[in-house]
Amino acid sequence: MLEKVIANTALENLNKRTGIKGTFKDTQTIAKNKDMGVDGILELTFDNQTQKLYVEIKKDIRQYHIELLRRIHLEYPQFILIAERIYPNLKKQLCQEHIPWIDGAGNIYFQKGPHFIWIDKFEDLPEKKTVNRAFTKTGLKVVFLFLHDETWLNKTHREIAKAAGIGLGNIPKIFNGLKDQHFIVEVDKNKYKMVRKRELLDQWIIEYEKELKPKIHVGNFTFLNREDERNWKKLNFDNQDYWGGEPAADLLTNMLKPQMYTIYTNKDRARIMKKFRFKPDPDGNIEINKPFWNIGLERKNIAPPLVVYADLMNTQDERNMNVAKMVYEQFLQDQF
Q1: What 3-state DSSP class applies to 164?
Q2: What pTM, to 2 d.p., does this model score?
Q3: Domains, the chain, ordered by start
């Protein structure tokens, strides 16, 4: 199980580099609420004393995890986060919130009662070379289908491959990757169901930004004139053009004035410039990507809510993340 591997690796490095001993015990019975659940118990031993702590385990920590960690910490004061990687700005924020943490390199922040430990000098460990095929460029397209509509999980491999636009031979490897991380389980012969779906969504959002989005990115542009930007809703979209990110969120919630315009289209650069009156600009506020889905959509010219949500969350912008929460609650929550 991935969480156990992350925890044991972090604790092994913590002990090797600081002498602090930690023993992780996996449990699925502590949590009172699925979304507020913890992953286990940690017995942390130093100064001949043992602290018993509830543990939440993550591979990567992003800004949108902070609110969840804050709530868990309120529910379980004796709590600590273990993450394979925590970026410096988020370490600083966790410390300001007095949320204890251990990272994969063996660094630690812990402040409870008379005990105060803060070690942050060890470098991150090199990332493992093993690749889980569920989180490659092709795998993420399939995982998107499953998150968008779980019925895809039990369609034929040929149907899944066609909808994702990938080779048929990739499908068994992607299924194995999801099974290895316990995101899907077999309930009958060749019949599967998803488990830990919200955790899978969190991981998909992170890997989508790192692995898939750079591959579908066409380029950045700016409007030729300010009038077109003011009237962005009147752009001459056809049935194959979709708003993502901030403009899509505005269309869905009417609560966000776009500053960055994300568009998904299969048009080439020349056609984009001619039809929409954009000009190329590497620092421009129009981001053009190719759509990676091949499914029917409920809303014309708006990317799937799952994509809109991911676009917003990955900006790490507080304004966007607040609206992302609205998108999740209105269009996604029932699925998770």
Answers
A1: helix
A2: 0.75
A3: 2-119 (3.40.1350), 133-195 (1.10.10.10), 217-335 (no CATH)
